[in-house]
Amino acid sequence: MEGRIIVVTSGKGGVGKTTATASIGAALALEGNRVAVVDMDIGLRNLDVVLGLENRIVFNIVDVINDRCTVRQAAIRDRRIENLFLIPASQSDNKDVLTPTGVNRIASLLKKEFDYIIMDSPAGIERGFENSVTAADEALVICTPDVSSVRDADRVIGLLYARSITPKLIVNRIMPAMVAKGDMLSHEDVMEVLSIELAGLVPMDDQVVISTNTGVPLVMRNESKAGQAFRRIARRLNGEADLPIEVPGAKTGLWNRFTHKFGLKK
Amino acid sequence: MILDNDPPVKLKGVGDGFWITLDPSKPEQLLKNQLIKLFERLKHLAVNARVVIDTGGTEGYDDLVQNLGDFLKTRFDVGIVSKPPEKRQVAVERIRQKDLDRGWTRHRSEVLMLRGRIRSGQKIEAKKHILITGDVNPGALIIAGGDVMIMGRLLGHVHAGYPDNPSAVILALDFRPTQVQIGEYAAAGLDDKKTDRVEFASVIDETVLVQDYLGANPFGRLPWPEVV
Fold first, then answer.
1. For chains A and B, what is the number of CB pairs under 8 angstroms?
2. Do B139 and A159 touch (CB under 8 A)?
């Protein structure tokens, strides 16, 4: 069976596309799939750092497109997680070296080798975005609960629909305390505007910074709430579609459920 | 030989008053005598009654009507004396008749009707009216030559009556646009709090005014359905 290409995109920069790509890719690999994560951010590569593989890069995606190496040569195997591979971006080129035709060619090669190909799209809706979504079967749109991010995500969703891709939404960096006080948009507010299927909700987590700086995938850190959320998203993508969405900060303890049931608390 | 049997003054009861038809070419004194004869028979019924003096559509007898009215008021204590209401103009009457004859069955609609969600960055343009059953997200742009009706949330930017028709209206079930423009008049920074009311914007006194739709009921006041 051919693999699935999932593009991770957002429109706005800095909302957690790269972290999400690395985490979901790693989580899918931990579930036993052969996974390639592909950095499409030519010129501003980051995914290798987040995965802690920056010092092992020999070839990159531009080399594959220009036939300087094969896909297998460019794919870097992660030593900690079996079946996780990275295809890095080039740091010295710009987005114009890739074309949708070239990307489609690589995509068909990757589909034969891997179960999942997760593409990390650059910010923006220009050439880099076009290259990233051209071969995608599915899309994950990342947005944070703020007005500007929602606006950009909305634009991207429109562009994806125009390409007949039905995107799913990940709301990242939810701060339950601020949502409770009404200082931050809740995921319901975000859904009210975007109204697409929800893939998962990810809470704000300090562990993300540590993970990014040390290059240890978030999903390998059991104490990370964001990591757990990404693992659940991966399970949902991997066939467990009815795995319930966990709302960050919602109290689910036994005592709370008990008091809620008896009408003592809402 | 023509026999003029018609009396110069005729009286008939209409609703809560009386309708007097008279021949204004007759001398005023004769008309007054006739009126006295008729109104004395009415006795107390004439008190405070509404009286319409109809000169049969002939112009130029305003003074006569005025005099006779004053005379009736002082002599018989009638209430209001007026001339018959003006007839509708022929053109208006024709439109009304057409509408009453269900003119819309032959009318080709120029409404662009869309269903769904208009997202950020999307632009909807139409020469005439736009009706959207769905939501308009922030960052979306709607431009219509006529009215814009949103059966849902309006959070985007709307220009109705483009380019210069200030009689257009913008209506939304949840009216919270980032900016509205009607013809040449723009309004931004509108109150973006959610209300439970259906609101609409229209231009009144060269200003875009947002009002409660059911409260103002701008179209419910129209006497008959119009094709727009």
1. 30
2. no
- Both tokens of B11, joined, read 């009286």
Element (H, E) at B96: helix B90-100
* A20 lies in some domain: yes
Tell me the pLDDT of chain B averaged across its residues: 84
Share of chain A above pLDDT 70, in %: 94
Which residues in chain A touch residue B138, judged by CB atoms under 8 angstroms apart?
147, 150-151, 154, 193
CB contact under 8 A, A151 and B119: no
Does any domain span residue A125?
yes
Burial of A252 (0-12, 13-18, 19+ CB in 10 A): exposed
Q: What residues have CB less than 8 Å from A241, skipping those under 6 apart?
A: none
What percent of chain B has pLDDT above 70? Answer: 91
Token pair for A5: 């290409």
For testing contact with chain A, the best of B115, B119, B141 (most A CBs within 10 A): B119
- Which ipTM value was assigned to this complex? 0.74
Find the chain B residues whose C-beta atoms sit closer than 8 A to any C-beta of A: 117, 119-122, 135, 137-139, 153, 155
Task: Say if residues B126 and B114 touch (Cβ distance below 8 Å).
Answer: no
Structural domain includes residue A266:
no
* The pLDDT of residue A60: 93
Q: How far apart are CA B69 and CA B49, in angstroms?
A: 12
Q: What domain count does chain A have?
A: 1
Residues A209-229 have pLDDT tens digits of: 999 888 899 998 888 999 999
Nearest-CA distance A193 → chain B (Å): 6
- Beta carbons of A155 and B119 less than 8 Å apart: yes
Interface touch B138/A152, C-beta < 8 Å: no
CATH number at residue A148: 3.40.50.300
Q: H helices within chain B, ranges in order? A: 28-42, 62-76, 90-100, 213-216
Q: Is residue A15 part of a domain?
A: yes
Letter for the amino acid at B8?
P
Q: How many whole angstroms separate alpha carbon A190 and alpha carbon B88? A: 55
Q: Which residues of A touch B141 (CB under 8 A)?
A: none
Amino acid at A3: G
The boundaries of the domain holding residue A74 are: 4-261
Within 8 A of A193 by CB-CB distance, chain B residues are 135, 137-138, 155
Count of helix runs (H) and strand runs (E) in chain A: 12, 8
pLDDT band per the 50, 70, 90 thresholds, residue B39? confident
Of residues B120, B135, B155, nearest to A158 (C-beta) = B120
Contact B119 A147 (CB under 8 A): no
Strands B207-212 and B199-204: antiparallel
